Amino acid sequence: MPQIDQMFEIWSSQLFWLAVIFGLVFFVVGKGMVPKVTSTVDARDTQIASDLAAAKAARDAADEQEEAWRTRENANRESAQAIVGEAKARAQAATEARLAEAQGGIDARLAEAEARIAASRDAAAAEIETVAVDAAQDIVRQFAHVSVDEAAARAAVQEAMTRGQ
Amino acid sequence: MLAAAETAKVDPMHQFTVEPLLGHDWNVAGYNLAFTNSALWMLITAVALFVFMLGGMRQQLVPGRWQMMVESFTGFIDDMLDANIGKNGRKYLPYIFSLFMFILFANILGLMPLGVVGVHPFTFTSHFTITGILAILSFAIVLIVGFWKHGLHFFSLFVPAGTPLPMVFVIAPIEFISFLFRPFSLGLRLFVAMMAGHVLLEVLSSFVIDGWNAGAGFGVLVGIPSFVLMVAICALEILVAGIQAYVFALLSSLYINDAENLH
């Protein structure tokens, strides 16, 4: 087993070269290169963490703005609905006023027409009475050759008309 | 084992032989510092690790595949330290990462089938002279951090929280001995796991070669099953290479946790 057989002749050489070469490895690789690699990894980790934080902040800001927009939008909608309601109420009031006005006009014209009809009817009735009085006087004169004065004839006619009604 | 190896055509232990490549006689104060094949493969491992890490140096915000791979390795060790030590674990990242990647690359490079092109990889993590030094290094860091941060209070590590007073005198020596065994178990585990796998592969490959040399019947009967088993064990060895590197780094970080966050 050379490890044991050669031990006494090689140990100093092994120790020396291991010290030299492992020393080189330690100082060049371990002390020189490893910190650079770990600093790169650390820099990347912090970069990723900060990017994530920035993205989160941006999303929060967006949420906040959306919330504000939503509040504003709701307020706008409410005011719009108020305006619409007001306009509707105003339109309804105007319509009702005009309807009332039109109704008043119609009522007045109806009353006027009725008054006119009543007047016509009275006039017609008076006419008929006059005609009937004349006719009664003529009828009485021709058939009974009795001359009746107008007042008597009128009274008779009025009586007959009142009864006949 | 040596007698058996001499008779076999394939010596399964030969792969662990350390051979000087340069400077047989580089001696400093009586100690030989020859540049061996072991040192060569340490150098290759270090260079491969350096080249791999270059991919992490692009430092782009959106990483490519290579950069992603480097970052996943540093992140893996970073998470492990965070889970075992806590926030203070970050400062041990250079050491634990170097340790983990150095062992991992060494283990995997040692498994590369480069023998096909005539280059024989040397797995230096199969030498306890290497794993032992790494274990002692981790253990030394534990001791230094422990005494630096907690002073003599660090000895309370040997008295688990909530121990009844009479039991302290029994438990403290046991804890102390188990504490002293840590570097051995740490170093031996990696060395044994790597050596066992490589010996097993070498033995199986000698079965394949010797089986076919003994005739077609032996080749079919012994060679082919051995080869299938070798392929399966190669997959297992890649897993072991990763697991052993992880275990070494994990135990080192757990021991450092004892020193960093004394109960």
Explain what the structure shows.
The complex is a heterodimer of chains A (165) and B (263). By secondary structure, chain A is an all-alpha fold. Chain A has three helices and no strands. Chain A has one domain (2-164). Chain A has helices spanning 2-5, 7-144, 150-164. In chain A, helix 2 (7-144) crosses helix 3 (150-164). The longest helix of chain A has 138 residues, at 7-144. The model of chain A has no long low-confidence stretch (mean pLDDT 90). Chain B has one domain (2-260). In chain B, 68% of the residues lie in helices and 3% in strands. Chain B has seven helices and four strands, in the order αββββαααααα. In chain B, strands 1-4 form a two-stranded antiparallel sheet. In chain B, a hairpin with a 2-residue loop joins strand 2 (27-28) and strand 3. Chain B is globular, with a radius of gyration of 22 Å. Residues 1-8 of chain B have low confidence and may be disordered. At the A-B interface, helix 2 of A face strand 3, strand 4, helix 2, helix 3 and helix 4 of B.
Q: Could you give the topology of this structure?
A:
The complex is a heterodimer of chains A (165) and B (263).
Chain A lengths: L1 H4 L1 H138 L5 H15 L1
Chain B lengths: L1 H6 L12 E3 L4 E2 L2 E2 L2 E2 H18 L10 H20 L8 H19 L16 H23 L14 H49 L2 H45 L3
Antiparallel strand pairs in B: 1-4, 2-3
Helix pairs in contact in B: 2-4, 3-4, 3-7, 4-7, 5-6, 5-7, 6-7
Features:
heterodimer, A: 165 residues, mainly alpha, 3 helices, 0% strand, rod-shaped, B: 263 residues, two-stranded antiparallel ribbon, 7 helices, 68% helix, globular, disordered N terminus, proton-transporting ATP synthase activity, rotational mechanism (chain A), hydrogen ion transport (chain A)
Rg from Cα of chain A: 63 Å
Number of strands of chain A: 0
Helix amount of chain B:
55-70%
Q: Largest inter-chain interface? A: A-B, 37 and 51 residues
* Shape descriptor of chain A: rod-shaped
Oligomer classification: heterodimer
Please indicate the percent range of residues of chain B in DSSP E strands (runs of 2 or more). under 5%
Largest sheet of chain A: none
Which sequence of SSEs, written as H and E, runs from N to C of chain A? HHH
Number of helices of chain B: 7
User: What fraction of residues of chain A sit in β-strands?
Assistant: under 5%
Can you count the helices of chain A?
A: 3
Overall structural class of chain B, as computed from helix and strand content, comes to: mainly alpha
Poorly predicted regions of chain B: 1-8
Number of domains of chain A: 1
